[in-house]
Amino acid sequence: MANALIGLFAFAVGSIPFGLVVGRLFFSTDIRAQGSGNIGAMNALRSLGKRGAIAVLLLDVAKGALPVLLAARFGTGDAIQAVAAIAAVLGHCFSPWLGFNGGKGVATMLGATLALSPLAVAVAVAGWLLGAIVLTPYSSVGSMLAGLLVIPSLAFFTRSLWETLYGAAVAILIIFRHRENIERLRSGTENPIPFLKGRAAKKR
Predict the structure, then answer these.
(1) Residues 72-80: contacts with CB within 8 Å, 24+ apart?
(2) DSSP H stretches of helix in 28-138
(3) Residues 115/63, Cβ–Cβ less than 8 Å
(4) What crossing angle do the helices spanning 118-129 and 106-116 adopt, rounded to 10°?
């Protein structure tokens, strides 16, 4: 029963649409009507500016980390931590507050992974920087690369089958949630990171 409640709590916390909340409360803006329409930190940067984006990023990371930390404290083994981690990301991606729609899950994934293994999340963040800053000007590329790197990094640093399975599940979920971005990348219409727009224009 306790483990089931932890899973439900993780989904509930993950489902809080902080991008929407921060936009409406502090900027009088519905983030869904701006930019890409996504509720995550990158669209918050486009719609709300740096302060709004930082707030959304930190809150989305926190809602991924908190359920996993509670699972480690009150749960029974690494399996329930893995369940809490994927439940939090699923809550973000399929929030009942948004008609079971939501964001791409990247920041929440980073928070959940941080609670499982700080070293694994360091690899994922490095992957995001490589994909989104060094190789391309597109956050979506970095996000998908970060998701994929979670699998081997969790396997290596945690030696936990359950946590590695979480990594595989979350990587698949993140790529699935980026399917529209993949189509835009193919067609050359993907939105670049705002401060890298000049670089994207040169590539086109």
Answers:
(1) 72/115, 74/2, 74/6, 75/2, 75/3, 75/6, 76/2, 76/3, 77/162, 78/158, 78/160, 78/162, 78/163, 79/162, 80/3, 80/6, 80/7
(2) 41-48, 50-74, 78-93, 106-116, 118-129
(3) no
(4) 150
- Give the pLDDT score at 37: 87
pLDDT of the residue at 72: 93
**Token pair belonging to 20:** 């929407």
pTM of the full structure = 0.94
C-alpha angle 122/75/124, rounded to 5°? 10
Strand partners, 101: 95
Residue 37: Cβ within 10 Å count: 12
Q: What is the pLDDT of residues 109-156, one digit of tens each?
A: 999 999 999 999 999 999 999 999 999 999 999 999 999 999 999 999
Which of the 8 DSSP states describes residue 188? T
Which residues, including other chains, have CB under 8 Å from residue 139's CB and lie 6 or more apart? 42, 128, 132, 193
Distance CA 37, CA 153 (A): 31
At residue 108, the 3 state secondary structure works out as helix
Structure confidence at residue 36 as a pLDDT band (50, 70, 90): confident
Other beta carbons within 10 angstroms of residue 77's beta carbon come to 12
